[in-house]
Amino acid sequence: MKICPALPPCTCHRHQTRSYVVCSSVRNVSTLSAAIPRAKSDNLPWIRIVDSNIPWLHSRAFGGLRAQSLQINASNLTNITSDAFIGLENLEALALQDNLLYSIPAASLRRLVDLKLLSFAGNRIGSVSNEDLISLINLRYLSLSENIIDQIETGSFPPSLLHLALAKNQLESLDNVVADLPLLEWLLLSNNKLHTLEMHQFKSLPSLRKLILTNNQLEMIEGAFDGLTKLRELMLNNNKIRSVEDVFHFMPDLRDIGLARNQITHLAYLGDLPMLNDIDLSENGMENVLVDAFEKTPGITRLNLSDNAFVQFPADALSPLASLVTLDLSRNKLESPIYITQLRLPTLKYLSLSGNKLISLPDNLFDSFPSLQELDVTFNLLTTFDRFTQFPLKILHLQGNPLRCDLNTMRALDEMEVQLTDRPLCTNAVLPISQEETN
Asked: Which PANTHER family is this protein grouped with (predicted)?
């Protein structure tokens, strides 16, 4: 096996049959250049420079070094000459992250036609022109996240892209900036300033499988996702969406939707989503779920309705969910247990009713949920739990209730076969001060 060469001030490491070089705390480019001649004779495919001070990459900065991957991260890089990468024409991955670049160094990239991965994440780039990446015909993965980009010209991205990351920028509109990317599978647009998505916004992205739009200011999204027949994951958390009616229509492969922390107070018909598995609707101030909301989403196994404003258990709306395994209704305003038993969810295994105002649970709870294994009723108003001894549960979360400390209660605690996560405190039915303030 070939010995990894000594290249001070850098260190050489081996990974399986390959060697790679790591240079950290390099004070200037001259110090780095001294190590490069010693590396030319060795096949060192991966080079990583980090936490250094290299503000300028001059002409032929890496000489004839043979490398497939080059990273220069957190090294105060500001300027790159047009011929800085001469000799690195076979480079396949280039990462210049967390530096001080104000623009994409288009001239220096023109020689790197074999690049498959390129990252400028964490710089100060403000715009992207349609000339910046024009030569990168083989590019598959591009990250421009964590910049200050507020303008992108149409046609700026190579049609060969599979993954495009534009998260944490200043984009207010997409216009046609992500159009005509027939191979694109992942598009990350979280933490921008997007207000509206146009009808058929993503129609020219037929291969899209993952779309992340969290932490924007979206309000209008009707029809934006039409045509995305291969989309599997759609994240819209932390926006200002008020309605999802006429949004999803028919999306045959969609598996995961995130709609938490929006303003959806009433949930209407979601759409024809036969493969939907997981949906998060928490923290919306939701008060009502219409009867037909889940009419064509029979495959949902996880439903999060926590931190909303339900007073009644939305039994009629949940009845189509014959495959539901996990249901979270914690931190709502549920008072009466009667609505809980108005539906049958034969596959439900986990139910959370924590942080509501329930004073009792129905005796026939397991008629509705015969497969239930874990029940969370913490921080309600329950004063007794004698009937819990009859439930075929595996795990019970019971703490934070004003339980009566009578003989039956103490005996039930001692004899209970179900696993208690914490032994509840008896309060003689006096509500703890902290919970009085909550309720």
From this structure: FISH-LIPS, ISOFORM E, SLIT RELATED LEUCINE-RICH REPEAT NEURONAL PROTEIN
Count of residues making up the chain: 439
Angstrom distance (rounded) from CA 77 to CA 97: 9
**For residue range 248-293, what is the model confidence (pLDDT) as tens digits?**
989 999 999 999 999 999 999 999 999 999 999 999 999 999 999 9
Q: What 3-state class would DSSP assign to 318?
A: helix
Nearest to 241 by CA among 222, 270, 225, 264: 264
List, in sequence order, every residue forming a beta bridge with 72; answer none if it has no partner.
Answer: 49
pLDDT tens-digit series, residues 155-183: 999 999 999 999 999 999 998 889 899 99
What mean pLDDT is reported for the chain?
Answer: 88
List pLDDT tens digits, range 310-328: 998 888 899 899 999 999 9
DSSP string covering 111-127 = T-TT--EEE-TTS---E
In whole angstroms, give the CA distance from residue 20 to residue 234: 37
- Which residue has better confidence, 42 or 311? 311
Band of pLDDT at residue 427, cut at 50, 70 and 90: low
Residue from 155, 119, 154, 114 nearest 136 by CA: 114
* 3 state SS of 328: strand
Structure tokens at 87: 């000799």
Pairing of strands 18-24, 11-15: antiparallel
Q: What angle do CA 7, 11, 14 make, to 5 degrees?
A: 110
DSSP 339-386: GGGGS--TT--EEE-TTS--S---TTHHHH-TT--EEE--SS-----G
| CA distance linking residue 5 with residue 21, whole number of Å | 9
The two three-digit tokens of residue 376, written as one number: 């969370």
Report the 10 Å Cβ neighbour count for 64. Answer: 12
Question: And the tokens for 250?
Answer: 């028919």
* Domains, in order of start, for the chain: 282-429 (3.80.10.10)
